[in-house]
Specification:
single chain, 583 residues, mainly alpha, 2 domains, two-stranded antiparallel ribbon
Length: 583
């Protein structure tokens, strides 16, 4: 019995048992780090896309199909033009034309697990919105998966010490944790990117070592499917199929044609059903996202394209795209590329471009990373919209951050090459250098955990109890026009149209032709804009009379306003709804 116990303890201390304990220890550390971060740095949603995808996920969870409560004027225009009968819009559920389905479907599964009443909030001592905390925990679980993939990939290409450093630097990225609580789909896409990198490394090795052909074919199909899955998570990710095909065409010589075709076939099989759905709905493969390159251009500055019910799309020219590319590429080169890994570790990667590697697989993966960087830099520059101006780093248009784990991997590899010239293996000096490197890389995250801590309430402009109170004055089938319809849809569960460019005229025309708009809800997104450029000379001039003289324009159908919201917010309705509780 004693011998059996000793044998069991020996297995726990060495071999597979030791690896299990190490994995459990890492999971506990990451879980503890996530708990500490959520206590110190959690913040409710402040990103409009996060709210938009969350309300889509809730609609799916409640059996309402892939419909949205946020109505974009551009979406109305596309749907109306594609309908031969030109019948009134918004008579039923409004199909979403902006978001691909994978992340909302994932959120739908999460929301099904939440208790009844989790989406309701109380105005008394409100701090954390439970569904948003659940989304953050989901994303932080994906961080664990991504860290495991970084560790395994680095261990395969380098060795275990490099794998540990790469994983620590990756998990210690402060930007990664901010993405986790933002509610965006970035962490999910990082997991997909790492899975794709693993497939390409295994595929290249299988062909180079002459392993069975079916294995390479399966890996090529899986790689194409992963790119398609990423494209159905964020449309811009689909462009990664270009560097994948180039990588195979350049480095997988014996079977390049068949493997490239396999990648493209799997990619198209995954993407085709959703593209078909969009084409049938509005005639465009990617819905409103088809015009991402035209947004924030000279012809359609800021968010004017999304807010237009009758956009002149023919006015966009090649010169607009050239100007947008030149202007935004400077931002990419000056700011985005230096912060590629979420910290200064990206500098090690950039220096490492000049360092040769003995491993063929590692050298070829570096070329794939460079190709991906070039494609994503171009896509990020052309796809930049008002979302990036609203939140310069934490936004869905930040494509380069998806390559951050591979940057950490190569940065850790270069570090070990440098350390080999400074200190022998297993020496105290070597451990000290590596420890200081990891500590310095994680320093921004550690500083964020120190007081003073941020408030979890993202006001202005988002205060869920107030938005729910205002929304409750309207019936579920009534329509509101607002400057933050994503928040009204997510927190208030009411159908809300984005404030149009000519809101005073459009509100009346839309009410007469399609569906009556029962309320105009404006928040600090409008009231707290620059006085000269927006109020005296800009689009808010028509609101001056309401805010200065408290006079509604003559003939405007919405003439009643509660006093307790003014002047931070303005709500105009058809009658004093706050005096009569909505059904």
């Amino acid at each position: 019995m004693s011998f059996a116990l000793q044998s069991f303890l020996h297995r726990l201390q060495t071999g597979a048992g030791a690896r299990v304990f190490q994995a459990l220890f890492v999971l506990i550390v990451i879980g503890a780090a996530g708990a500490v971060y959520d206590l110190a740095g959690f913040r409710n949603f402040s990103n409009r896309e996060a709210m938009d995808m969350a309300q889509l996920g809730r609609n799916l969870a409640e059996g309402q199909g892939y419909s949205t409560l946020q109505v974009r004027p551009l979406s109305v225009y596309l749907l109306q033009n594609h309908r031969p009968d030109k019948s009134p819009m918004l008579a039923g559920a409004h199909p979403d034309l902006a978001n691909p389905p994978v992340y909302p479907v994932l959120l739908a599964g999460l929301f099904k697990l939440l208790p009844a009443g989790a989406f309701a909030v109380s105005e008394q001592k409100f701090s954390v919105h439970l569904p948003e905390l659940a989304v953050a925990l989901l994303n932080q679980g994906l961080i664990v998966v991504a860290a495991l993939l970084v560790f395994l990939l680095a261990g395969r290409l380098f060795d275990r010490p490099v794998a540990w450093v790469a994983a620590i630097v990756f998990v210690g990225s402060e930007a990664l944790w901010r993405f986790s609580v933002s509610g965006l789909n970035t962490v999910l896409l990082i997991v997909i990117t790492l899975g794709l990198a693993w497939c390409l490394v295994a595929l290249e090795e299988a062909v180079r070592l002459g392993r069975p052909g079916w294995r390479a074919l399966l890996l090529a199909l899986l790689a194409g499917a992963l790119v398609g899955l990423g494209g159905l998570t964020r449309y811009a990710f689909a462009w990664l199929v270009v560097p994948v095909v180039l990588y195979l065409a350049i480095f997988v010589a014996p079977r390049r044609a068949s493997l490239c075709l396999a990648v493209l076939a799997a990619f198209l099989v995954v993407m085709a059903p959703w593209i078909t759905r969009n084409v049938l709905a509005c005639g465009l493969p990617f819905g409103t996202a088809t015009f991402a390159a035209a947004e924030s251009s000279v012809t359609f500055p800021e968010d004017r394209l999304q807010r237009s019910l009758t956009p002149n799309l023919r006015a966009v020219s090649v010169a607009d795209f050239k100007a947008k590319l030149l202007v935004n590429s400077r931002q990419v080169v000056d700011t985005d590329l230096p912060k590629l890994g979420g910290s200064w570790v990206s500098a090690f990667f950039l220096v490492g471009l000049l360092v040769p590697f003995r491993s063929v697989a590692l050298s070829r993966l570096r070329w794939f990373l460079l190709l991906s960087l070039g494609v994503f830099a171009l896509v990020q520059a052309l796809g930049r919209t008002a979302l990036s101006a609203e939140s310069p780093e934490i936004n869905s248009e930040n494509m380069l951050v998806l390559l951050a784990p591979l940057v950490c991997l190569f940065g850790a590899g270069l570090l070990f090459q440098l350390v080999e010239n400074l200190a022998p293996p297993f020496s105290p000096a070597r451990r000290a250098i590596l420890s200081l490197f990891c500590l310095a890389a994680c320093l921004p995250l550690l500083q964020r955990l120190l007081p003073p801590h941020v408030s979890p309430v993202a006001y202005p402009p988002y205060y869920p109890p107030l938005i729910q109170r205002v929304s409750a004055w309207f019936k579920p089938d009534e329509l509101i026009m607002s400057d933050m319809p994503w928040a009204v849809a997510w927190y208030g569960r009411r159908c809300s149209m984005l404030l149009t460019l000519d809101w005073e005229k459009d509100l009346v025309d839309f009410s007469n032709r399609h569906k009556p708009i029962k309320g105009l809800y404006l928040t600090p997104l409008t009231t707290d804009t620059p006085f000269l450029s927006k109020w005296l000379q800009g689009e808010n001039r028509s609101l001056m009379g309401i805010f200065v003289r408290r006079e509604v324009p003559t003939g405007f159908p919405l003439r009643h306003a509660p006093n307790d919201l003014f002047p931070d917010q303005l709500l105009l309705t058809d009658y004093e709804r706050w005096a009569v509780k909505a059904e």
